[in-house]
Amino acid sequence: MSDLEQLLELQSKDTMTEQLGYRRERLAERDELIRLAGRAVAIDEERSVAVDQRHELQRSQKRREDEVATIEGKVKDTEKTLYSGSVSSPKELGALQSEIAAMRARQSDLEDGILESMEALEALGSHLEALDDEQAALVTDQGLVAARLASTEAEIDEESSQVRSAREELVSSLPAPLVERYEKLRTSLGGVAVARLSGDVCTSCHLSLPSVEVARVKKARAEEPVSCVECGAILVR
């Protein structure tokens, strides 16, 4: 294989290394882990809100239950007075009955509120259980995706290592000045420093060369590095 053909092979190895690096950085598992991490944060926030709501409902229910207990005590005391015979005035008896009715009405409202709180607490409990289940499943998914990511990264790294080893062999077999020129061109041309001339087309810039340039390239010695007049890449013919 000529030096220029080996240089073209070197270009192939470098292009492959770049492609492997690009693939490694854009693995679907990496995006999936980001998505799962975002959902984990959302679950934590949603759970925190639900827990605060549950605590507030529990406090509100406790206040209602305490007030119901207080009312029941007052109703019992008022009924005791009402039926004790110590009050004989019809007006006072009527007032006591009205007071008891008002307390019973308030008690009924409080008990309705307690039932509503219990229903809301039950719904929140179910919601928190669902969040906990989703969180547990999320942890499992994260572990599985992370394992797949690590496995795929290892495969890519192994392939990259093999490509780099093959590249080192090519570099060691090529003249140092030619490799130096190649490396400078790769930097200045954005990666592609060597390309094949296919007919009159440079496969780096994909432009047709003037016939006089094509003739000049083909007349050059086989080992003479000739550059494309359009993009500057070394042409292999």
CATH topology of the largest domain: Helix Hairpins
User: What share of the residues does DSSP label as strand, in percent?
Assistant: 5-15%
Q: Let me know the average pLDDT.
A: 94
Outline: rod-shaped
Q: Quickly give the structural class.
A: mainly alpha
What is the CATH architecture term of the largest domain? Orthogonal Bundle
- Order of strands in the sheet with the most strands? 2-1-4-3
The largest pleated sheet is described as: 4 strands, mixed
Number of strands: 4
The oligomerization state is single chain
Helix content: over 70%
CATH class of the largest domain: Mainly Alpha
**Element order, helices and strands?**
HHHHEEHEE
Distance between the termini: 13 Å
Q: What is the total domain count?
A: 2
Radius of gyration: 42 Å
Count, helices: 5
Low-confidence stretches: none
